[in-house]
Amino acid sequence: MTRASAPPALRIDGLTVAYESDPVLWDIDLELPAGCIMGVVGPNGAGKSTLLLSTLGLLPPLAGRVEVFGQPLERVRHRVAYVPQRRSVDWDFPATVMDVVLMGTYGRLGWFRRPGKTQRAEAMAALELVEMVEQADSQISELSGGQQQRIFLARAFVQHADLLMMDEPFAGVDAKTERAIVRLLHGLRDEGKTLLVVHHDLATVPEYFDQVALLNRKIVACGPVGRTFTDAHVERTYGGSVRVPVPRA
Question: Which long-range contacts (CB under 8 A, 24 or more apart) does 187-190 make?
């Protein structure tokens, strides 16, 4: 099957989510082609994190359907990895960096097998990829925000997932770490992986992403950055006069 004829990595049809009686997402239609990076942008309270959580089955929808690589999520959950917002994690939990990364292998091992030499080697390779090998035995609470984000990326890498969903992976990291993460994400894309990334910095959208979804409870526009990330769509999304940033030279 060629990429042109392959099903999209993610297809969302008519997704509606509410907290009690308050709709957070309304009738969301979204299609993410395989082998690209899509950024999800919108104002605070637009439902960006809710979109990821409901797509992953962590929040029950009122309506709608989600397919991953043409199948229900339950059948291909092993092909999906999730990187949550760093601020949503209890970093005081007594675990080492290696412990956290090894958690990414549990889905393949099952409940009754413990990680062995093979899994530890995979974890070390992932830590090398994110330049965190020297911190393997450190407690996660001892790390900086940027280091903690790298550890969560390493955990996602060892899952061997084909679709990675990331909730603001650049939040709270320094410029050097952000550039390193972008290189990693582009490298994964070039290997054929697909990434859905919640993002807040409009200035970097043209540089970071192939596709963009502009969201404010509803999808305002979704598609390739070049034709979708326009002044008109951004203004409709944010409810005011917002100019699309000029791409960096």
Answer: 188/164, 189/35, 189/36, 189/37
Round to whole Å and give the CA distance between 129 and 124: 9
- Does the predicted TM-score (pTM) go above 0.70? yes
Residue by residue, pLDDT tens for the chain (249 residues) are 445 567 999 999 999 999 877 889 999 999 999 999 999 999 999 999 999 999 999 999 999 999 999 999 999 998 999 998 876 666 677 889 999 999 888 776 665 667 778 888 999 999 998 889 999 999 988 888 888 888 888 998 898 899 999 999 988 888 888 898 899 999 999 999 999 999 999 999 999 999 999 999 999 999 999 999 999 999 999 987 666 665 554
